[in-house]
Amino acid sequence: MEIEYITHSLDATLSMNDPHVMALGFFDGVHLGHQSLLQQAKAIAKKENVKFTVMTFDPHPNEIFKRETDRRYITPPDSKLERISALGADKIFVMNFNFPFASLPADDFIQKYIVGLNAKHVVVGFDFTFGHKAQGDVDYLRHFSKNSSFEVTVISKKTRNNQKISSTLIRKLISDGDVHLIPDYLGKHYEITGSLDSLVESPIQNTAFHIHNKYLMPKPGLYKVEIISGTIGTKGLLRCGGESCHLSSSAWVSLYSGEITIKFLYQAALMRTVSV
């Protein structure tokens, strides 16, 4: 799988000569709705015997327009790319979302980054927008494609428990501490990565856990979690207080000082005041 990072400029050279089917979206979380879209794009690519590619964007537009410089993600960029890759993408284009790119008219976006990349078929969600001030939408894309060299497939809204599956919904569940509900929409438990200060021989008691990357954290509280270190897995408790987290486990295992994955299972207790 290949990753190509693109920063918009008028003379940018794009390297995709072979025809391909391209899925477009931000894809934070790569939730069940995103997975449906990506799987549909992959199926079309297989049917047409061409490569399956994905175009995503970094950073989130709110970091540019609303100056959310400390915005947190369900899946920070590296994690998002890993999940997209696991779904079978042959190539991922990561577009640098900056002011010059955000100012690009919708027609120019299509000409440069769909036609210019030799995409023969694009797959987008029903609410996909693009171009300056989001002037382009799925109807605009369909209309443009009638006189162009590509086709368009639009994936309809996906729901679960009478709610639209969306990154916004999952972000709210995380922020509210309702982590036990997340698998219904994400397709798996919410997880983050981080590290301990050193090699620890369990049982672990209130050991500082350092979060890697810009993960969105649940509200302060005590969470039942699964701890994964290499090939070792065990249950434990993670006490969260904003950016300060402490890990405990009664199981006797050795936890490596490198990267550890934490899967949130459910909230065990609220924290009225945080003291760790």
TrEMBL record:
Residues 17-168 form the FAD synthetase domain. It is an enzyme of class 2 (transferase). Keywords: ATP-binding, FAD, Flavoprotein, FMN, Nucleotide-binding, Nucleotidyltransferase, Transferase. One of its GO terms (biological process) is FAD biosynthetic process. It catalyses: FMN + ATP + H(+) = FAD + diphosphate. Pfam families: FAD_syn. Belongs to the RibF family. Its EC number is 2.7.7.2. One of its GO terms (molecular function) is FMN adenylyltransferase activity. Pathway: Cofactor biosynthesis; FAD biosynthesis; FAD from FMN: step 1/1. This is FAD synthase.
